[in-house]
């Protein structure tokens, strides 16, 4: 999509939206879910779910990587999760992995020499392979395993565990197939019990 079209749409946006919608949104937010996914441009959470403004509190990271909980460290990711779970008290968390993921590719050997920050980010949370391995270009199996690893990372957050145990919060693992548009819920992605 051309940048000029993006600018035109942004200018038209206030005209297309009703005043009532604006007043409702300005009054505050009570999102249905914290939606954690990759920064990949091919994933549009509102298009996948049909979510209206105010429904999804989004956290997008390179490779939908979720750092383990470390109370002595601050990160944008941990702060966003804390705000959604403790501050906004969202009742659902959706972690959405995807096929054809560049970060998952890097975790399986794709070269990152020209992306030192990405390499540092991924190696901080995962052990990077020494050599390139032969893999399916869609990376479906690898991406689903990667999703499970992120769900395990969420289990290290004490305030998430507390609210899950209290029956106030559910955690869902989704896997979005870029090619088919399917949204899968891998059976093993029930880190906190049935979805
Ligand atoms: Zn990705």
UniProtKB/TrEMBL annotation:
It catalyses: hydrogencarbonate + H(+) = CO2 + H2O. Keywords: Lyase, Metal-binding, Zinc. Binds 1 zinc ion per subunit. Gene3D superfamilies: Carbonic anhydrase. Its EC number is 4.2.1.1. GO terms for molecular function: carbonate dehydratase activity; zinc ion binding. Belongs to the beta-class carbonic anhydrase family. This is Carbonic anhydrase. It comes from Crossiella cryophila.
């Amino acid at each position: 999509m051309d940048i000029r079209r993006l600018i035109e749409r942004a200018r038209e946006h206030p005209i297309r939206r009703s005043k009532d919608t604006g007043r409702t949104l300005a009054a505050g937010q009570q999102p249905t879910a914290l939606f954690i996914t990759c920064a990949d441009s091919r994933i549009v959470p509102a298009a996948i779910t049909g979510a209206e403004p105010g429904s999804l509190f989004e956290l997008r990271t390179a490779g939908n990587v979720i750092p383990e909980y470390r109370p002595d460290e601050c990160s944008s990711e941990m702060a966003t999760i804390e705000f959604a779970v403790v501050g906004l008290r969202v009742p659902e968390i959706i972690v959405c992995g995807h096929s054809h993921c560049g970060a998952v590719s890097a975790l399986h050997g794709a070269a990152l020499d020209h992306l030192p920050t990405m390499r540092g980010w991924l190696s901080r949370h995962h052990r990077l392979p020494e050599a390139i391995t032969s893999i399916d270009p869609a990376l479906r199996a690898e991406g689903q395993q990667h999703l499970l690893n992120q769900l395990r990372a969420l289990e290290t957050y004490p305030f998430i565990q507390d609210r899950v145990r209290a029956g106030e919060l559910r955690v869902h693992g989704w896997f979005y197939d870029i090619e088919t548009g399917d949204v899968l819920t891998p059976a093993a992605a029930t880190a906190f019990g049935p979805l």
